[in-house]
C-alpha cells in the first residue's frame, strides 16, 4: 500500500520540500544573562548543525541521516549538554542518554547512562540497525558501543570546567535536593522530513546536573522525548524530563496528529502547532516546563517552548535561521 507520505511529489505534483528543525535545549535563556561570546558561539554551533543536516537533505538524503548528522554536530559542541559538554551526575560522572527514530517503519534505538561514546546518537542508531533491541543501558550499552567500533573518548573529553562549576554550585545549595530543574536544559535534538516525506527524530543529553540513582529522563525514552511516525510527524523534546515522561509527550503529539490527519491528508493548517501548544500546556499544568520541535510529513515545522528561550534553528530549501530568545521572530511557518 502506498501512502501520501511515501511519494516524492506532493498532491500538486511538485517535489516535496525537505525541512530540518533543531534544538539545543531550553530554559532561562535571556539576553541580559548571556555574554556576547556565548551568544555568538551558540549561534555558530546551531548554524553548523543545520548545515550538516541540510547538506544531506538537499541532495535527496534521508531524514534519518540528517537528524543523526545534525545531532552529532551539536554533541561535538561543548555549549550543549550532550556528548562533549554533558553535565555531571551528583558523583561527578558522565552518564549520557540518546534516542533516534525513523517514521517509515517506526524503527527506533536508544541508550541510557553511556559513559564513553563520543556520539551517543550514533550509538542509538547502531542499536536500531545492528541489534535486535530498542533500548540498551549503562555497562551493556558501553560494551555494545565498543563492539560496534564506535569512537570512544575519555571522561575529560565530555566534562568541561563550566559543567564542573555548575555541579559544585548545585552541591553548595542547602538541603538534600540536589536536583537542578530550574536552570537551563542543554539537551540537543533534531527532527526532519526528507523529499520522500519520511520523518525522523533524534535527541541526546547528559541529563540533569547532579542527577542520582541512575535517573533516566525523557530524552532516550521512545514516546516521551523522541518519536517519529510517517503518519503524523517527528518530535524531539527538551525540558523537565519527568513531566515529558509522565505525559508521554512525543507520542501524545504524534497520536493527536495522526487522528487529525485523515486518509493521508494533512491536518488543517495550524493544527500541528495547536497540538504542540496543548501538550506543552498540559505539562505546564502538571508543574513542568520545556520545549518541543516537530516536523510533519506534509512539511509543517513547529518550534515551541514555555521557558524564556530555547536554542533552536530551522532549515529548508528556502534558507536557514537560528534563534535563542523568546522574543526572536521565528513564528512557525506553514
Ligand atoms: N529533558 C532532559 C532530561 O530531563 C533535560 C534537557 O532537556 O536538557 O534529561
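Sequence proposed for the structure above (334 residues):
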Amino acid at each position: 500500500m502506498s501512502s501520501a507520505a511515501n511519494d516524492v511529489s506532493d498532491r500538486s505534483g511538485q517535489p516535496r520540500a525537505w525541512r530540518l528543525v533543531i534544538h539545543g535545549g531550553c530554559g532561562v535563556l535571556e539576553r541580559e544573562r548571556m555574554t556576547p561570546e556565548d551568544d555568538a558561539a551558540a549561534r555558530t554551533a546551531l548554524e553548523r548543525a543545520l548545515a550538516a543536516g541540510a547538506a544531506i537533505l538537499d541532495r535527496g538524503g534521508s531524514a534519518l541521516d540528517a537528524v543523526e548528522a545534525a545531532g552529532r554536530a551539536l554533541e561535538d559542541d561543548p555549549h550543549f549538554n550532550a556528548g562533549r559538554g554533558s553535565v555531571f551526575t551528583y558523583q561527578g560522572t558522565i552518564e549520557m542518554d540518546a534516542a533516534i527514530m525513523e517514521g517509515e517503519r517506526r524503527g527506533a534505538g536508544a541508550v541510557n547512562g553511556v559513559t564513553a561514546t563520543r556520539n551517543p546518537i550514533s550509538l542509538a542508531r547502531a542499536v536500531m540497525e545492528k541489534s535486535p533491541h530498542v533500548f540498551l543501558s549503562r555497562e551493556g550499552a558501553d560494551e555494545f558501543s565498543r563492539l560496534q567500533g564506535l569512537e570512544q573518548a575519555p571522561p575529560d573529553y565530555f566534562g568541561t570546567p563550566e559543567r564542573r562549576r555548575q555541579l559544585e554550585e548545585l552541591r553548595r545549595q542547602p538541603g538534600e535536593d540536589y536536583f537542578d530543574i530550574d536552570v537551563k536544559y542543554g539537551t540537543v535534538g533534531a527532527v526532519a522530513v526528507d523529499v520522500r516525506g519520511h520523518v525522523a527524530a533524534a535527541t541526546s543529553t547528559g541529563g540533569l546536573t547532579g542527577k542520582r540513582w541512575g535517573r533516566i529522563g525523557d530524552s532516550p525514552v521512545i514516546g516521551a522525548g523522541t518519536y517519529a511516525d510517517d503518519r503524523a510527524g517527528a518530535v524531539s523534546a527538551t525540558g523537565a524530563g519527568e513531566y515529558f515522561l509522565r505525559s508521554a509527550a512525543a507520542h501524545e503529539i504524534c497520536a493527536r496528529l495522526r487522528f487529525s490527519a485523515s486518509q493521508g491528508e494533512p491536518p488543517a493548517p495550524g493544527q500541528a502547532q495547536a497540538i504542540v501548544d496543548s501538550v506543552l500546556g498540559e505539562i505546564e499544568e502538571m508543574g513542568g516546563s520545556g520545549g518541543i520541535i516537530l516536523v510533519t510529513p506534509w512539511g509543517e515545522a513547529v518550534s515551541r517552548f514555555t521557558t524564556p528561550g530555547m536554542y533552536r534553528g530551522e532549515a529548508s530549501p528556502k534558507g536557514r535561521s537560528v534563534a535563542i530568545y523568546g522574543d526572536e521572530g521565528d513564528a512557525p511557518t506553514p
